[in-house]
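In the design runs reported in the main text, the only information available to the sequence generator was the tokenized backbone. The following block is the verbatim input for one such run; it is reproduced so that readers can re-run the procedure and compare outputs position by position.
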């Protein structure tokens, strides 16, 4: 990749390398849950993937970043598959600290992941959680996540929340297969 990537090229790369993740039926759950402001967890994950690729590109990191692992880790970093705004009697009280691990556990059930992907998903909440990512891809996901989350949380669009279809619980989706 000798030239700088355009927005369209980045979106195409994410669609190509992230296809298996994007098309998985459990992604339906992410499409039904708001993450920050009026952005669903699915939209947030795609944004993080695009931003992480943009950052790697602009920082000229392609000689040491695995593009496919970066995209898949970014798309799966919030694969915790519940709406964290539903407090569930306090079960998700520690969401900020635990959801990286929850996302990894879910992702391992649905996908074959390499070590870069696993480590980057599990430690994406660093420095809120104590263990730093082991790979540069993990730092890119962490940084892109923080930037996206901040922009989404403070966007004026957050006041325009549309009603989302009710998220089908994991078990129900499994039962219909
Ligand atoms: Fe997260
Ligand atoms: Fe996130």
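Verbatim output:
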């Amino acid at each position: 990749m000798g030239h700088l990537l355009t927005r369209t090229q980045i979106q195409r790369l994410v669609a190509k390398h992230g296809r298996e993740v994007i098309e998985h039926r459990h992604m339906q759950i992410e499409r039904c849950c708001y993450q920050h402001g009026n952005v669903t967890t699915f939209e947030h994950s795609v944004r993080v993937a695009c931003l992480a690729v943009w950052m790697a590109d602009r920082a000229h990191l392609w000689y040491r970043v695995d593009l496919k692992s970066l995209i898949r880790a970014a798309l799966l970093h919030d694969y915790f598959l519940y709406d964290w705004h539903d407090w569930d009697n306090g079960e998700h009280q520690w969401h900020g600290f635990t959801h990286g691990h929850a996302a990894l556990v879910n992702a391992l059930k649905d996908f074959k992941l390499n070590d870069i992907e696993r480590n980057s998903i599990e430690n994406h909440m660093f420095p809120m959680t104590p263990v730093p990512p082991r790979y540069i891809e993990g730092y890119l996901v962490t940084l892109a996540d923080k930037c996206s989350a901040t922009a989404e949380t403070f966007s004026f669009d957050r006041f325009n929340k549309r009603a989302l279809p009710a998220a089908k619980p994991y078990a129900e989706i499994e039962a219909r297969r």
